Amino acid sequence: MSQVNFAAMTLDEVKAYFLSHRDDKAAFHAYMDKLNESGRAILIDPADPLSEQNAITQMQQRLSQTT
Hints:
Elements lengths: L10 H10 L4 H14 L12 H16 L1
InterPro entries: DUF6887
């Protein structure tokens, strides 16, 4: 099996690869890394009681910007 060069792939390419290779842990980690680097990730801190509400607010804001 050949090595996949995730570094050379775009976020959307890594996402598509991961979705077609769901058991590939390296693909999952590469996707999470690229998602985080892109600034599109929304993180929830389980220790912060306001974190979930903040994440919901961020998602709503992003959705309203796309419509």
